[in-house]
Amino acid sequence: MKELVCTTCGVQIESTETVPSQCLICTEHRQYVSPKGQTWTTLEEMVRSNTYENNILLEEQGLSSIRTEPSFAIGQTAYLVQGKNFNILWDCITYLDALTIETIKALGGIDAIALSHPHYYSTQVEWAETFDAKIYIHEDDRQWVTRPSDRMIFWSGESLEVAEGFTLHRIGGHFKGAAILEWKKGNTSKGVLLTGDIVRVVADRNWVSFMYSYPNFIPLPAVTVERMADQLNDIRFDRIYDAFHRTVLNDAGKVVQKSAKRYVDALNGVLFDT
What pTM did the predictor assign? Predict the structure, then answer.
């Protein structure tokens, strides 16, 4: 049997003799099972359907976004970041076809795939095998890997320099091993953070937010957000790209700090009286 893909979260599992009744990722407080029940597809079925395509757009010099249209599963954006003789794919999406492969190879291919957290593992092994890339996942999230591969590197500690100009930081929050990617050369060397939804840009682009569960509206504790803000305060960056194609273009470091304070004030009951 081909490796199955959960249609709700888009994460691929290793091949099994029988169709599983549940998805490990979705049957947990931070995700959800579709009201229509658990359903599966395969990457091959998605390609054969001729329904989907990946739009690859240049966001700034050295950074391209990759989004599937129409949206599939969670609908996140992945990013291809081009460094000095080294390209890194930040987070992953499920859909991968011949045109996507051709376009990315023309941009220099992928040397490494780095993941913010399990909701975006998607078909990461397919991508890694296609582009002969390593996969970087924090060891604290190892238990959520649904399709193991010897290409996976489970890193430990609070930070890891994957290559020159690219550093992963574990800041936790959404997941224990939740990570962000610091791109030092991004935004004309002012620094860029790619945050998945570990730090989420909200509707008002002058603010960001943090959550334990987005679909189920479960907030993080104040002490956790304060710790995350302290860690982020030690990183130099001026711009943020999140998992849903939202961007804080300037002064992102200040935006994170004021947003963390607002979040904590709201939890502590001092932001408003209602």
Answer: 0.97
